[in-house]
Design brief:
The chain contains 6 helices and 8 strands, in the order αβααβββαββββαα. It is an alpha+beta fold.
């Protein structure tokens, strides 16, 4: 089974079985010490990404309302971060393998139009149209990261440049934590 189909199976299982864990972070309260806040926030998505990361990456223009993690055993397969701003905006990321990366790269490169930029995150990373990122690390783990296009194209919450910069930063952080 290809990595893409494997990931679809994992995410489908998360919807059917109690594998999806809602992690709102609201129970943390405001009394967490400053040095613990970053660690607590990044645990929202299995220690890979949190509210503070999103706020910093987008200069405070986007804030996370809620998160949902899809996991298989102890491994995080993906996370959806729902944003306070706009209607139904979110940041999604999925963790996969080298085969998933190759499939996503091939698919993105075949699309015509739009923008494409390689950047430094892992052994290979690309951002497409300022809203989709793929990256691969030396251990063969891959990342697919995306922001709702409406945040830029319809609601003007960010410029394409702000989105690109923020997603690149988030990708670098996730890849360093894998």
């Amino acid at each position: 089974m290809s990595g893409y189909h494997h990931l679809k199976t994992i995410l489908a299982a998360a919807a059917i079985m109690p594998l999806a864990i809602s992690c709102s972070g609201d129970s943390q309260g405001d009394t967490i010490a400053a040095e613990d806040a970053g660690a607590a926030a990044s645990e929202e998505c299995g220690g890979l990404l949190g509210r503070a990361d999103v706020a910093e990456a987008f200069g405070g223009l986007l804030t996370v309302k809620d998160t949902t993690v899809a996991a298989m055993g102890d491994e995080v397969a993906g996370c959806m971060l729902f944003l306070d701003e706009g209607a139904n905006n979110r940041i999604n990321f999925n963790i996969g393998d080298a085969e998933d990366f190759a499939s996503r790269k091939d698919s993105q490169m075949r699309q015509t139009g739009g923008t494409h930029e390689a950047f430094d995150a892992g052994t290979e990373a690309h951002v497409f149209n300022g809203i989709n990122v793929i990256a691969l690390n030396e251990d063969g783990k891959s990342l697919s990261l995306g922001l709702s296009s409406a945040a830029i194209e319809e609601e003007n919450l960010l410029t394409r440049e702000q989105s690109t910069t923020g997603l690149k930063l988030l990708a670098q952080r996730i890849m360093s934590r894998l």
